[in-house]
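Action item from last meeting closed. Structure (165 res):
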């Protein structure tokens, strides 16, 4: 009796696709990012009526400036810039986005970010200096001075950091 033993050859095709060539260094990335693909002005074609609708209230802008430790100089221009940014964000929210895209496959994102350690965060906070060019003043963010109770390096803040006026 003759037995026939058949063998099946398994063939697997591997397909590899790429968006483009890999970036070799940071200058190529900067050149790619800096090259204009579309203009923000085209996306933000707006009339004055629409821009006025997106202006934040004066109280909100004043409160944000106080919270950030910035002076109230150029209040109107800051308010207009904030209104344009809010309008831009509103228009971005209306864009169709594919939720199935995995951000790990992006070309520019760092693949293995290092987690921020407590010691490094503490060192960065300790060495941070106030910048006068940004309008920061000495003592503008000393939140623990508002503490009514403290013990063993812990502080209790019973009142708000900034009282609403």
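Sequence:
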């Amino acid at each position: 009796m003759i037995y026939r033993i058949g063998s099946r050859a398994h063939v697997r095709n591997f397909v590899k696709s790429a968006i483009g060539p890999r970036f070799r260094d940071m200058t190529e990335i900067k050149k790619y990012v800096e090259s204009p693909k579309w203009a923000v002005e085209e996306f933000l074609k707006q009339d004055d009526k629409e821009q006025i609708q997106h202006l934040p209230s004066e109280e909100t802008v004043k409160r944000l400036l106080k919270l950030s430790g910035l002076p109230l100089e150029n209040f109107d221009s800051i308010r207009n810039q904030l209104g344009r940014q809010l309008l831009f964000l509103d228009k971005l929210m209306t864009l169709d986005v594919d939720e199935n895209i995995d951000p790990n496959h992006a070309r520019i994102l760092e693949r293995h970010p290092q987690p921020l350690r407590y010691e490094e965060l503490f060192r960065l906070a300790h060495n941070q200096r106030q910048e006068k060019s940004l309008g920061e003043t000495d003592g503008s963010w000393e939140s623990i001075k508002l503490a009514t109770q403290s013990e063993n390096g812990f502080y209790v803040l019973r009142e708000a950091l900034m009282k609403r006026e």
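Note appended to the action item: Residues 79 and 119 are 38 Å apart (CA to CA).
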